[in-house]
Amino acid sequence: MDRYAVVGNPVAHSKSPLIHAEFAAQTGQELHYEALLAPLDGFAATVAAFRAAGGRGLNVTAPFKLEAFELADRLSPRAEAAGAVNTLAFDGGQAYGDNTDGAGLVRDLTHNLGRQLAGRRVLLLGAGGAARGAILPLLMEGPASLVIANRTESRALELADRFRAGAGDAELRASSFAGLAGSTFDLVINATAASLSAQSPELPPGVYAPGALAYDMMYGKGDTAFMRAARADGAAAVADGLGMLVEQAAESFQLWRGVRPQTTSVLADLRASIDRG
Ligand code: ATR
């Protein structure tokens, strides 16, 4: 049976084995998908052993997305732009690296949450790997503007400069958090790591336009700190990143198997299991 895995450290908490097992059952694909714990200094060796044993593909999670980028022989344009790889496909002697995170985010926003991005004002919070992976897929939706805001403003400026050539008609600019005062947005995406420590980025009040959605890439049981702060500041709708997780998995599954799984029931099952847990 074709073997796949998610590799990370830690990895025991990963929902990916559950998601891919549901995708496989639903599409009638015969495959085995497991969680692989790699030592912090042993990512390449873990990948090599998996390939030697006939492994066909890997999802890569923290902290190895940059190492996976280095390891790939060929890269998709979106992995190149993200500077990180979350999906590896092994074909003969070649390792193909892709990044499905940003596409998963956009699919969740547009398909699951029914938000069109064309002509909208979008605010992206954060300038780390998670933010960087989202920029090109967001720009490809044709927003009116994309503002990248970060606690450390210089990192946001670097990102805005890097992506300016691909911005098309969208206004792309960087900001500090304080510099957002007086601006409003239709969509605010939290790609900072603040929710990991139950914190929310410290934004000035009033950034949510009427009807705005606040989206946290993190997820958990109940609202994240960012979602609570967004509600308090008048966001009309809030969402966490569970849909992004399922959608990036579906993109990976499609890359490996050539079929696109249905995500609605998988997302509902996962939400129910998290709410129970
Ligand atoms: P990742 O790859 O998950 O994006 P990262 O590269 O370490 O992780 O980036 C973390 C991001 O979260 C950064 O944008 C960081 O802001 P700084 O560049 O100023 O460090 C942001 N971040 C982390 N904790 C935060 C907090 N409590 N409030 C606001 N931003 C935070």
Automatic annotation (TrEMBL):
<dbReference type="InterPro" id="IPR013708">
    <property type="entry name" value="Shikimate_DH-bd_N"/>
</dbReference>
<feature type="domain" description="Shikimate dehydrogenase substrate binding N-terminal">
    <location>
        <begin position="6"/>
        <end position="88"/>
    </location>
</feature>
<feature type="binding site">
    <location>
        <begin position="14"/>
        <end position="16"/>
    </location>
    <ligand>
        <name>shikimate</name>
    </ligand>
</feature>
<comment type="similarity">
    <text>Belongs to the shikimate dehydrogenase family.</text>
</comment>
<dbReference type="Pfam" id="PF08501">
    <property type="entry name" value="Shikimate_dh_N"/>
</dbReference>
<keyword id="KW-0028">Amino-acid biosynthesis</keyword>
<keyword id="KW-0560">Oxidoreductase</keyword>
<feature type="binding site">
    <location>
        <begin position="126"/>
        <end position="130"/>
    </location>
    <ligand>
        <name>NADP(+)</name>
    </ligand>
</feature>
<dbReference type="InterPro" id="IPR041121">
    <property type="entry name" value="SDH_C"/>
</dbReference>
<feature type="binding site">
    <location>
        <position position="241"/>
    </location>
    <ligand>
        <name>NADP(+)</name>
    </ligand>
</feature>
<feature type="active site" description="Proton acceptor">
    <location>
        <position position="65"/>
    </location>
</feature>
<dbReference type="InterPro" id="IPR011342">
    <property type="entry name" value="Shikimate_DH"/>
</dbReference>
<feature type="binding site">
    <location>
        <begin position="150"/>
        <end position="155"/>
    </location>
    <ligand>
        <name>NADP(+)</name>
    </ligand>
</feature>
<feature type="binding site">
    <location>
        <position position="86"/>
    </location>
    <ligand>
        <name>shikimate</name>
    </ligand>
</feature>
<comment type="pathway">
    <text>Metabolic intermediate biosynthesis; chorismate biosynthesis; chorismate from D-erythrose 4-phosphate and phosphoenolpyruvate: step 4/7.</text>
</comment>
<feature type="binding site">
    <location>
        <position position="61"/>
    </location>
    <ligand>
        <name>shikimate</name>
    </ligand>
</feature>
<comment type="subunit">
    <text>Homodimer.</text>
</comment>
<feature type="binding site">
    <location>
        <position position="101"/>
    </location>
    <ligand>
        <name>shikimate</name>
    </ligand>
</feature>
<dbReference type="GO" id="GO:0004764">
    <property type="term" value="F:shikimate 3-dehydrogenase (NADP+) activity"/>
</dbReference>
<keyword id="KW-0521">NADP</keyword>
<feature type="binding site">
    <location>
        <position position="219"/>
    </location>
    <ligand>
        <name>shikimate</name>
    </ligand>
</feature>
<dbReference type="Pfam" id="PF18317">
    <property type="entry name" value="SDH_C"/>
</dbReference>
<feature type="domain" description="SDH C-terminal">
    <location>
        <begin position="241"/>
        <end position="265"/>
    </location>
</feature>
<feature type="binding site">
    <location>
        <position position="217"/>
    </location>
    <ligand>
        <name>NADP(+)</name>
    </ligand>
</feature>
<dbReference type="InterPro" id="IPR036291">
    <property type="entry name" value="NAD(P)-bd_dom_sf"/>
</dbReference>
<keyword id="KW-0057">Aromatic amino acid biosynthesis</keyword>
<protein>
    <recommendedName>
        <fullName>Shikimate dehydrogenase (NADP(+))</fullName>
        <ecNumber>1.1.1.25</ecNumber>
    </recommendedName>
</protein>
<feature type="binding site">
    <location>
        <position position="248"/>
    </location>
    <ligand>
        <name>shikimate</name>
    </ligand>
</feature>
<dbReference type="Pfam" id="PF01488">
    <property type="entry name" value="Shikimate_DH"/>
</dbReference>
<dbReference type="InterPro" id="IPR046346">
    <property type="entry name" value="Aminoacid_DH-like_N_sf"/>
</dbReference>
<dbReference type="InterPro" id="IPR006151">
    <property type="entry name" value="Shikm_DH/Glu-tRNA_Rdtase"/>
</dbReference>
<feature type="domain" description="Quinate/shikimate 5-dehydrogenase/glutamyl-tRNA reductase">
    <location>
        <begin position="113"/>
        <end position="195"/>
    </location>
</feature>
<dbReference type="InterPro" id="IPR022893">
    <property type="entry name" value="Shikimate_DH_fam"/>
</dbReference>
<comment type="function">
    <text>Involved in the biosynthesis of the chorismate, which leads to the biosynthesis of aromatic amino acids. Catalyzes the reversible NADPH linked reduction of 3-dehydroshikimate (DHSA) to yield shikimate (SA).</text>
</comment>
